[in-house]
Every structure is written in C-alpha cells, then in structure tokens.
Design brief:
Oligomer: heterodimer
Largest sheet of chain B: 5 strands, parallel
CATH class of chain A: Alpha Beta
Helix content of chain B: 25-40%
Strand content of chain A: 35-45%
Number of helices of chain B: 9
CATH architecture of chain B: Alpha-Beta Barrel
Order of helices and strands of chain A: EEHEEE
CATH topology of chain B: TIM Barrel
Helix content of chain A: 10-25%
CATH superfamily of chain A: Beta-grasp domain
Strand order of the largest sheet of chain B: 6-5-4-11-10
CATH topology of chain A: Ubiquitin-like (UB roll)
Distance between the termini of chain A: 46 Å
CATH superfamily of chain B: Aldolase class I
Number of strands of chain B: 11
Structural class of chain A: mainly beta
Number of helices of chain A: 1
Structural class of chain B: alpha/beta
Order of helices and strands of chain B: EEEEHEHEHEHEHEHEHEHH
Shape of chain A: globular
Distance between the termini of chain B: 68 Å
Chain lengths: 69, 287
C-alpha cells in the first residue's frame, strides 16, 4: 500500500494513499470533541470530509474551542 | 442574561442628546438585531480554573462572552471542559479570530468558528504587530468586507483611528470595537482625545471599548464618555479574585452608563463656590 505524508497541526503523519479527510478526523479527534478543519488554509465543511481526498504534503489544521478574549 | 431577537432598528437615541433621555425607560441595546441588557462583554481565557471563569461570568451578569479556537490537542481536554461550561451559561457567543495575521487566516478561522459554535457572529481580529498586538487596519477592512458578504455579523477589533472606523461602518459593520490600550496591558484609555472624537463623529453606531482596561474606574470613564459597552478579559481573569472583580466591573459599567445618561456637568477652569455667597456672615465687617 502506497502511503502519503501529511502534517496535522504542524506534526508529520502517514496515511494510506486514497484516504479522505474523514479518515484523518476519525483517527485524530475524539468523538465528543467539537472540531473544525482546514486543509492548506482553506476551510472544509464537516459535510465534505468524506468527499475530500488528502494528498501528499497537505497541511491540515484541526481546531477546537478554547477560552478566548 | 435575557436576550431577545428583533428585526427593528435600535431605538436608542443619538449620543448627542443623551442627557435628555428619560432615565426611567429601558436601557437595553441592540447589536445585529439582538437586544441585550448588560453592556459588559467578558472573555473566557486566562482564569485560574474553569470554575473561576464560570463564577466570573455569573458575577458579571454579562450577556455576551468571547471565546476562541486553537489547534486541537487530543490529550488536553481543558478546552472542551471550558466549552461545555460556557454552553451552560446561556450567553450569546462571540468567537474571535485572535492571533490571525492576515485577512485570509481570519476569514478561514471565522468560517471554522461558524461551524463549531453555530453562530455568524465574529469578533474579527487581524494582528499587524506582534509587540503591540495592534490591529492591521488594511487587512481588517479587507477581511471585514469579505465576511460581511458571506453573511457574518462582524464585530471588528480596531484601533481608535477615525478613518478606519468610518470605513468599517461604511462597509456594513453595525458595531465597532476600538481598543482602549494594547491587549492585556491594563493601561486604560490611552488616547481619550481620539476616543472622544470617535464618539462624536460616529454618534449612531454602537462603540465598544475592547482591550487594554485594567481597572473598573477606567471602564466607568469610558461609559461616561458615551461608549456603549465594554469588552475585557485579562483585568478580570488575572485579578486575585476574578468573580469579585467581574462584579466590580459590572457595577462600574452601570455607574458610568447612568452618569452618561444623566449628563455630566461642564468642566471649568476656575473655582466656583457651591454654597451661596449671598448672606455670607462676617463679610465686609469692619474690625
């Protein structure tokens, strides 16, 4: 199986080629946590995760709520 | 924490005739179609504990709280705990784009906020200088226009520059949030002349002093000047007793608002006795 290298929140990760954003969020985040995702600085709606393939070199940001001013 | 949604325009009178208002009438205010009672917006960061934050929110009697988004760390659940607590308060949520340094970053984070928090409200921050955390006015205006076109209710964190504020209002912002001083400094109202000019030149748009306040007296003074609300975080969160300080700010904001509505006396350069001079005993008596 061919793999690809991506970055999630700045850290390197390896996924199988053909993986989708849904695979990434399922593996990286917990079910009860509210998260939102951007790929290469572009927001991707939750409804599009399963339809968004990830590519070698992608930079994925997964964010969650924090206290803020 | 009562809020109501209305489609009518704000019913508050212009700032210049405020002293004529009937102090017995309701003093609610309206932002993007939502009407609020409290004029105190409170941040949710930097508290010694989540419970302290919750107690401060309660003590402040705020209707609106700010919060943010950061890269998720699955091993750290503090953010989720805070988020769960904030949802219990029933406050209106005002997510921020803190830390963004370009219009593109801010727009993307605003879109992410809208999905997570289920609100189109955004406290728009685009930072132009790391040392002062001063907003980048050009990127701020660019991001504002784009987000308004996407249906966001933009509450821009801006400087006290009159032209910038005019441009933001012309773009469609229904509220502006000029700084009192750089974020987290507690310096108070550093440029009262400019802030006073903003109030006079923009009499019909709600103005919220956002950032830089350190003491309730400073918040009170801003409200006495005619500002419509106060947004702060550090001054409460870093107090020795955050809930008590939240209460202090809340009452100071109410006092400043009441004083503004009552109409302050005009300042004079010379002394003027308050006790009548007519009837003064011992006056012009020959010894």
């Amino acid at each position: 199986m061919t793999t690809i290298q991506i970055h999630i929140n700045g850290e390197p990760h390896t996924f199988n080629q053909g993986s989708t954003l849904l695979d990434v969020t399922t593996q990286y985040s917990q079910k009860d946590q509210s998260v939102a995702v951007a790929v290469n600085n572009d927001f991707v709606p939750r409804t599009q995760y399963a339809h968004t393939p990830i590519n070698n070199g992608d930079a994925i940001d997964i964010v969650a709520p924090v206290g803020g001013g | 924490m009562t809020t109501t949604t209305t489609t009518t325009t704000p019913t508050t009178s212009t700032k210049t005739d405020a002293p004529k208002q009937n102090s017995q009438t309701s003093d609610t205010w309206t932002l993007y179609g939502k009407t609020f009672e409290s004029r105190f917006l409170l941040g949710t960061a930097l508290y010694p504990s989540p419970q302290s934050m919750l107690d401060a929110i309660t003590a402040s009697q705020t209707d609106i709280v700010t919060l943010g988004l950061r890269r998720q760390n699955p091993a750290n659940r503090d953010g989720q705990i805070i988020w769960d607590m904030i949802q219990q308060t029933g406050c209106t949520l005002l997510p921020n784009t803190a830390g963004c340094k370009s219009a593109k970053e801010a727009i993307t984070l605003a879109q992410m906020s809208r999905e997570i928090f289920g609100t189109n409200w955004i406290k728009l921050e685009v930072i132009g200088d790391d040392y002062t955390l001063q907003p980048d006015p050009f990127a701020l205006l660019e991001a504002t226009k784009e987000l308004l076109s996407q249906g966001f209710a933009v509450l821009p964190y801006c400087t006290d520059d009159l032209i910038l504020c005019q441009k933001l209002a012309e773009a469609g912002c229904e509220v502006l949030m000029p700084w009192g001083a750089p974020i987290g400094t507690g310096q108070g109202l550093l440029n009262k002349y400019q802030l006073g000019t903003l109030r006079k030149r923009l009499p019909d748009i709600p103005l919220i002093i956002d950032a830089g306040l350190g003491a309730p007296s400073q918040a009170c003074e801003a409200m006495e000047m005619g500002f419509d609300g106060i947004l702060l975080n550090t001054a409460v969160a870093k107090a020795q007793n955050p809930p008590q300080m939240a209460h202090a700010f809340g009452t100071a904001i109410q006092a400043g608002r009441a004083a503004y509505k009552a109409g302050l006396m005009l300042k004079k350069q010379t002394a003027s006795a308050s006790t009548p001079t007519i009837g003064q005993p011992f006056w012009h008596q020959k010894k």
